[in-house]
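Page 42, continued from yesterday. The earlier attempt failed because a stray header line got pasted into the input along with the sequence. Redoing it now with the clean sequence only.
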Amino acid sequence: MAIDTRGETAGKPSGEKKKRTSPALFYRQIISELRKVIWPTRKELVTYTTIVLIFVAIMVAIVYGLDAGLGWAVLEIFG
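This time it went through. Structure tokens are written below.
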């Protein structure tokens, strides 16, 4: 079930004007949000990076194997 909100902002009366955020306030909000982030330690970062690289290498090997196998099969059938 969809709610039709054409012509007005959802949850706000149509008479209210949108308030703009100043660049300074926007910057302060960004810094505030970045302070809430839990940054990984160097050891965690190395671990995550290693896992991603291994996963990517495995996926590349699978795709290469499928490509080579299907290419060979097509050449055998239609070649």
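Notes: The longest helix spans residues 42-78.
Reminder to self: strip header lines before submitting.
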